[in-house]
Amino acid sequence: MTNILVVCCTRQKKETSRLHRSLTQLGFSESCFVENNRAGLPASYNPFLEQYAGQDLILAFLHDDVEINDLLLREKLLN
After folding, report:
1. Residue 21 gets which letter from DSSP?
2. pTM, entire model
3. Coil, strand, or helix at residue 56?
4. Which residue from 47, 63, 71 is spatially nearest to 9, judged by alpha carbons?
5. Model confidence pLDDT, tens digit, residues 18-55
6. 4 near 29, Cβ under 8 Å?
7. Sheet holding 31-34, edge to edge
8. Strands 3-9 and 31-34
9. Exposed, middle or buried, 17 (CB in 10 Å: 0-12/13-18/19+)?
10. Do residues 44 and 34 lie in contact, with contact meaning Cβ atoms separated by under 8 Å?
């Protein structure tokens, strides 16, 4: 079964981000936040690509100011 992992870099704590709040409201627990990030996005995202290469996994890289209100997020990403 394919899993989904949302990855986000934020310069703050994850709890202050729109993305974290919206994922929490949707009950979407498969996420990883790089908090207090000062590195460029490639430097922060590439380790995730390397770590999960070849796995049956969807990596969704999102900005911290994104707000998701779609209850069918998981189903849409899997299709």
Report:
1. H
2. 0.89
3. coil
4. 63
5. 999 999 999 888 999 999 999 999 999 999 999 999 99
6. no
7. 31-34, 3-9, 57-61
8. parallel
9. buried
10. yes
